[in-house]
């Protein structure tokens, strides 16, 4: 390639001189085609540029009839030039007139030319013109010549982008799309509504220096950046907190492409033709992007998107800016946009400025969703290709409740959302005002409203909401967001911090509930046909008792001198509870032997999440200090409907007579035995569901912190005695759901649901 590359470098230098030289844009373009024709030993060199309405217009030519300039026009897709534009793919033909797509334009006088080589001129991922050379002879253009043409086309794209030649609006239909609103129906993964300015988690790099003096130096820079990129990807794959699920798949794809010879070769070719390493990466990226526009196969699109992302990462390694946007100056109201991100990365952002996160990936159980919920940041996932659609600086509305994301909303929509954001903020303020009021009904019935928690970031909510305590502390969250198994001391630290924050309020620690979809990468992967019914929670830790012993040890040490409540998850039979309790006893005795100070009081209970346990209450109740109904799992097993499968998750109503009878029976059995029964699944935080359970006799609920205010307001407007009488008349109804009747009750009695 040596000679051709040398020639193309000379040409680039010449082009740079022309572009920086005097004259109008048109006169410079005329000189450009002359220089290219001379350098490529072509009789013809022409440049066609895109005009509004998807036309290509001949803008400059050396060799064709000059009267055709600004006269000859082709539709995108018409003739060979139109085909190159449409497919964003170069074309090299020894005998062009024989090609079926050849469209003859008499004013150009091109009938005497046989061979043709054309390349798209691509800017911002979009074809904005076509560069063509032609020769009279049946010439075979070689690969090096094609490379050189592509490099020249890239430089030309810059010239076009300056806007002197064509109104850049003509080039903008893709860009114009970027000015219109775009709506995504994603998945609401962490609730809340926010509006703010789009910031890309991984900012795009704008390449300014296109032409290089020293190709060898550029190759060196490329290799260095490629090396550091690969090391970074390997390191990310080693960081275990990102290893689960979709995040890992994407990283694996990055790794594959980062070693892909074809991709690297194409970048190296670009450098050989005289581009800087950045420009060469960008050139390949532009081609990928342009090709992506016509790809519809979802798998291929996904891979091309991986490649696009990787190119952006490589650019950032080249310019030495490898950090995410977390270190940048953020707008006051930031909506962060990313394909995917790890939970730890979310912590890097300024909590005050970060208003919402929008991801292309993400599921309710992804770790980043768990952290976002804990931090109270609205998060919407499954917004396909949002990174591609959004421009940094765009206004974005994100609704974590409905999963809707609107980028560039119209003024009216933005105003409506601003209104909703304000109303919600006002409601939050009203609920905050209820913080210090007791949770008591109109007729004086007290209901304990606890909150669910799992990380230290949850703890300030205790005071902020006036929760009675923590009814469910999901200890697995610490294990899930960590990269390695939390050490004993780390566990003790967390549990102590929780008890400190709670002061005299009760806290119920639930032991590790992992397995199923709550994956701990460092535990090794277990593939199961039905993970929800599989080796999880108490089953897993009874088989791996060291894990449970460690955790119980940490809890006992943290609880020294205080009241400690421990609860076991997913217990399906009394024997499991006995066994777990026995392990606790062993640990307690061990610490006692070692002379450690003990908790003042140890209360031990169980989650009731498996229907079978509801039929063992006679044997169970004498053994436990309390029961907490995990309605999420209990209902998924009761109705045999996967709680994480949107196709069936809402098929059966939790307010169905059968489900309510089950809850009523458990509550009544607990009351009779003097064992407190509470409910800690999602239904506990929903006003109508909570109202119904209170009617059934439940006096303790544990919910996400944001629900405490609304529930206090509901309770303050409720006459429990009246409701109780009514609810019990409903249980034998044949209705599929009692929701409508209960709603009517609330409406007729002025209950704030
Ligand atoms: C439940 O199953 O209702 C529950 C509270 O546990 P988790 O949601 O953590 O499975
Ligand atoms: Mg559960």
SSE diagram, text form:
Elements: H1 2-20, H2 25-40, E1 44-51, E2 55-62, E3 73-75, H3 79-87, E4 91-93, E5 115-123, E6 126-135, H4 143-161, H5 173-177, E7 182-185, E8 187-190, E9 193-200, H6 215-238, H7 245-258, H8 261-272, H9 277-292, H10 298-318, E10 334-338, H11 343-347, E11 354-359, H12 367-375, E12 379-381, H13 386-389, E13 395-399, E14 404-407, H14 411-433, E15 448-453, H15 460-465, E16 470-474, H16 476-481, H17 488-502, E17 507-510, H18 537-543, H19 545-558, E18 563-568, H20 574-593, E19 601-608, H21 611-614, H22 617-620, E20 626-629, H23 631-638, H24 657-673, E21 677-679, H25 687-695, E22 700-703, H26 708-716, H27 720-730, H28 739-748
Helix pairs in contact: 1-2, 1-4, 6-7, 6-10, 7-10, 8-9, 9-10, 14-26, 17-19, 18-19, 19-20
Bound molecules: phosphoenolpyruvate (PEP) and magnesium ion.
Annotation keywords:
753 residues, alpha/beta, Beta-Lactamase, Glucose Oxidase, domain 1, Enzyme I, Chain A, domain 2, 4 domains, eight-stranded mixed beta sheet, eight-stranded parallel beta sheet, 28 helices, 16% strand, binds phosphoenolpyruvate, binds magnesium ion
Helix content: 40-55%
- Structural class of the helices, strands and pairings? alpha/beta
> Largest beta sheet: what is the strand line-up?
7-14-13-9-10-11-12-8
The CA-CA distance between the termini, in Å, is 75 Å
Number of helical regions? 28
Largest sheet: 8 strands, mixed
In terms of per-residue confidence, which ranges show pLDDT below 50 for 5 or more consecutive residues? 173-177, 240-245
Number of DSSP strand runs: 22
- Briefly, what CATH class of the largest domain? Alpha Beta
Rg from alpha-carbon coordinates = 33 Å
Can you say what the CATH homologous superfamily of the largest domain is?
Phosphoenolpyruvate-binding domains
């Amino acid at each position: 390639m040596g000679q051709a590359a040398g020639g193309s470098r000379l040409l680039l230098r010449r082009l740079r001189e022309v572009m920086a030289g005097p004259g109008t844009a048109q006169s410079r373009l005329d000189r450009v085609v002359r220089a290219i024709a001379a350098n490529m030993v072509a009789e013809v060199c022409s440049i066609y540029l895109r005009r509004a309405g998807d036309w290509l217009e001949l803008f400059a030519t050396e060799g064709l009839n000059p009267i055709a300039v600004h006269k000859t026009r082709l539709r995108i897709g018409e003739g060979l030039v139109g085909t190159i534009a449409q497919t964003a793919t170069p074309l090299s033909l020894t005998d062009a007139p024989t090609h079926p797509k050849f469209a003859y334009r008499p004013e150009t006088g091109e009938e005497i030319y046989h061979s043709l080589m054309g390349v798209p001129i691509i800017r911002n991922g979009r074809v904005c013109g076509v560069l063509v050379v032609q020769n009279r002879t049946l010439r075979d253009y070689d690969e090096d010549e094609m490379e050189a043409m592509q490099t020249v086309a890239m430089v030309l794209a810059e010239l076009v982008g300056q806007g002197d030649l064509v109104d850049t609006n003509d080039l903008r239909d893709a860009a114009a799309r970027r000015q219109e609103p775009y709506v995504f129906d994603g998945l609401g993964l962490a609730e809340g509504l926010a509006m703010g300015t789009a910031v890309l988690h991984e900012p795009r790099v704008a390449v300014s220096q296109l032409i290089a003096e020293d190709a060898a130096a550029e190759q060196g820079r490329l290799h260095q950046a490629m090396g550091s990129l690969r090391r970074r990807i390997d390191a990310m794959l080693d960081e275990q907190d990102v290893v689960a699920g979709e995040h890992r798949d994407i990283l694996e794809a990055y790794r594959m492409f980062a070693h892909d010879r074809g991709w690297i070769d194409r970048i190296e070719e670009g450098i050989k033709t005289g581009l800087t390493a950045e420009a060469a990466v960008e050139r390949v990226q532009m081609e990928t992007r342009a090709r992506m526009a016509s790809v519809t196969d979802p798998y291929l699109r996904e891979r091309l998107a991986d490649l696009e992302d990787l190119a952006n990462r490589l650019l950032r390694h080249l310019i030495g800016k490898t950090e995410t946007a977390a270190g940048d100056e953020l707008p006051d109201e930031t909506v962060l946009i990313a394909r995917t991100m790890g939970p730890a990365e979310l912590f890097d952002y300024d909590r005050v400025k970060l208003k919402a996160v929008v991801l292309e990936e993400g599921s309710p159980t992804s770790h980043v969703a768990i952290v976002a919920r804990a931090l109270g940041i609205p998060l919407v996932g499954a917004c396909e290709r949002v990174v591609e659609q959004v421009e940094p600086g765009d206004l974005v509305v994100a609704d974590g409740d409905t999963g809707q994301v609107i980028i560039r909303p119209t003024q009216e929509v933005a105003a409506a959302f601003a209104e909703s954001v304000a109303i919600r903020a006002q409601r939050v303020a009203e609920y905050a005002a209820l913080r210090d009021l007791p949770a008591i009904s109109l007729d004086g019935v007290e209901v304990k409203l606890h909150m669910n928690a799992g990380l230290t970031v949850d703890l300030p909510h205790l005071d902020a909401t006036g929760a009675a305590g923590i009814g469910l502390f999901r200890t697995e969250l610490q294990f899930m967001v960590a990269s390695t198994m939390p050490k004993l001391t780390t566990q003790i630290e967390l549990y102590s911090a929780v008890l400190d924050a709670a002061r005299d309020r009760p806290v119920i620690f639930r032991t590790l509930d992992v397995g199923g979809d709550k994956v701990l990468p460092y535990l090794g992967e277990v593939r199961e046909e039905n993970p929800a019914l599989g080796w999880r929670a108490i089953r897993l830790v009874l088989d791996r008792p060291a894990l449970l012993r460690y955790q119980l040890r940490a809890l006992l040490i943290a609880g020294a001198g205080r009241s400690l409540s421990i609860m076991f998850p997913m217990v399906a039979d009394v024997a499991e509870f006995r066994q777990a309790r026995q392990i606790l006893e062993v640990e307690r005795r061990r610490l006692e032997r070692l002379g450690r100070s003990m908790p003042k009081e140890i209360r031990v209970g169980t989650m009731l999440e498996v229907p079978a346990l509801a039929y063992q209450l006679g044997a169970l109740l004498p053994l436990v200090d309390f029961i907490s109904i995990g309605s999420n799992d209990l209902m998924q097993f009761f109705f045999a409907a996967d709680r994480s499968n949107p196709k069936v998750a809402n098929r059966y109503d939790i307010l169905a007579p059968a489900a309510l009878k089950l809850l009523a029976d458990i509550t009544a059995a607990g009351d009779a035995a003097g064992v407190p029964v509470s409910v800690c699944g999602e239904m506990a935080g929903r006003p109508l569901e909570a109202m119904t359970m209170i009617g059934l006799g439940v006096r303790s609920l544990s919910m996400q912190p944001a629900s405490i205010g609304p529930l206090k307001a509901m309770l303050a407007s409720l006459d429990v005695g009246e409701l109780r009488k009514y609810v019990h008349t409903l249980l034998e109804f044949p209705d599929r759901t009692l929701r409508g009747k209960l709603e009517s009750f609330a409406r007729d009695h002025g209950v704030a649901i």
